[in-house]
Amino acid sequence: MLRYATLSLSLPDGVREPTFDLFDDSPAVSTTATRYLGPTENGRHVGLSDVCGDLAVARDLLESDDDVLQYNVAGTDGRGVVYAHHRSVGPIKELLDILYRHDIVLEWPIDHRGRERDSAVQFTIVGTDEGIHRATTEIPDVVDVTVERVGGVESKAEAEPTLTDPQAALLDLAVEKGYYEVPRRTTQRALADHLDVAPGTVGDRLQRIERRVMTAYADRGDDW
């Protein structure tokens, strides 16, 4: 049977994964999603990520990181895209190898859950029962993985649009504070201050929430 599993992945203190945690120590810039990550030659990886915040700081951090071999940052107004080649120094290489070895499909993008959560990233994989079982049992002990949801692909296609924990928390807060009322009773900056995140992070997450919900609504048509 073809199944899907949504997983949350985090790394313990002291274990570094440059493709995911490069900006974690900076309050000025953060990664919101990884659009793609894949191997290149000599065990290296190339990635494409969405970032928000001070793009000049992002460039400085990329430039000063010895594990970043090549990079390019594009964007304006506090939102951008980072294209970068990394050395495979973290556990991500082993994780990707496990997925490829068992013919597991990784759905993009990978959502970054933010500094206010213990889990670093959340992603969904699709494969056979046997393939997913074998892949999850081979995940190295250094990686903390939590299974958030699992089910048949048919049930996934029919399910209501789901949000990550940070997205759900933000949506609840936005509704509670009157962000969607007319006229609005709060701002993105006020929501960001309440959650102790950058305003750009709130703006990006609200866009992702609205896109996910409205896309599901449009796909359902008269069924809603």
Automatic annotation (TrEMBL):
Coiled coil: none
Keyword Transcription regulation in annotation: yes
InterPro entries according to UniProt: HTH_bacterioopsin (IPR007050), HVO_0513_N (IPR056493)
Domain HVO-0513-like N-terminal: 18-151
Alphabetically ordered keywords of this record: Transcription, Transcription regulation
Keyword Transcription attributed: yes
All residue ranges annotated as the HTH bat-type domain in the record: 163-215
Protein name: Predicted DNA binding protein, contains HTH domain
Species of origin: Halogeometricum rufum
